[in-house]
């Protein structure tokens, strides 16, 4: 049965690259609180008719306003579905398992699958892993995920990383309007093929098992 890499420093060292350093050095907390109050007020206003129409344009890191939590959530779902429907998603997941969980694109695929199946903490773990070794789509997922959770400092941190790398969502993620719809009952079928191992420093870590590759192929053929 697959395990975490035999040298625990392998994961620790890679994750260290993804951790936000000096989280609150020079951070404008007052501005963050103002954004929070503004967003909360906006969400209690009557919805305009056009607000009910699904948006088809990505949230961009260049927009210095923290994205609305709902929009960030739907964009995160769209990214995750487009990743899973990528032409080589099953191969990347297979490489991730075969490499003892060291393949960054496979980590992204697995994280997106975890997110859609309702495991937000597991998804964040593997997004951070992939971002720590330079996967820009994983950085975008973290930007959206923190924005959805109201974690504005972390969202701004990943926004700054994306801007430094000149991240363009449509180029890296695909056409927002082509994201398929989520079918939760089908996503639930992945749970039997995910195990959790305890790491002495990282806690419970979700890990994919080989049958998950076939389940992913089946899932994407039905959605």
Order of helices and strands: HHHHHHHHHHEEH
- Bin the helical content: 55-70%
Number of domain units: 1
pLDDT < 50 stretches: 20-24, 35-53
Helices, by number, come to 11
User: Into which percentage range does the β-strand content fall?
Assistant: 5-15%
In whole angstroms, how far apart are the ends?
A: 30 Å
Spatial ordering of strands, largest sheet: 1-2
pLDDT averaged residue by residue: 81
**Broad structural category:** mainly alpha
CA gyration radius, whole angstroms:
18 Å
Beta strands, count: 2
| Gross morphology | globular
Largest sheet: 2 strands, antiparallel
List the helices and strands and how they pair.
Elements: H1 9-18, H2 29-43, H3 69-84, H4 89-98, H5 104-116, H6 120-132, H7 136-148, H8 152-164, H9 169-173, H10 184-187, E1 194-199, E2 203-208, H11 211-222
Antiparallel strand pairs: 1-2
Helix pairs in contact: 1-6, 3-5, 3-7, 4-5, 4-11, 5-6, 6-7, 7-8
């Amino acid at each position: 049965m697959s395990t975490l890499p035999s040298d625990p420093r392998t994961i620790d060292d890679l994750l260290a690259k993804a951790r936000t350093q000096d989280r609150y050095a020079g951070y404008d907390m007052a501005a963050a609180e103002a954004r929070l109050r503004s967003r909360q007020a906006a969400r209690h206003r009557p919805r305009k008719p056009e607000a009910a129409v699904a948006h088809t344009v990505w949230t961009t890191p260049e927009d210095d306003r923290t994205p609305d939590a709902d929009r960030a959530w739907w964009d995160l779902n769209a990214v995750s579905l487009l990743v899973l429907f990528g032409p080589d998603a099953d191969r990347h997941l297979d490489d991730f398992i075969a490499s003892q969980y060291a393949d960054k694109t496979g980590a992204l695929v697995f994280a997106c699958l975890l997110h859609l199946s309702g495991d937000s903490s597991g998804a964040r773990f593997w997004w951070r892993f992939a971002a720590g070794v330079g996967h820009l789509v994983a950085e975008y997922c973290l930007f959206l995920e923190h924005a959805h959770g109201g974690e504005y400092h972390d969202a701004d941190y990943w926004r700054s990383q994306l801007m430094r790398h000149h991240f363009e969502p449509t180029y890296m993620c695909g056409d927002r309007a082509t994201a398929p719809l989520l079918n939760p009952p089908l996503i639930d079928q992945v749970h039997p093929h995910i195990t959790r191992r305890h790491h002495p420093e990282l806690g419970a870590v979700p890990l994919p098992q080989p049958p998950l590759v076939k389940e992913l192929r089946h899932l994407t053929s039905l959605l």
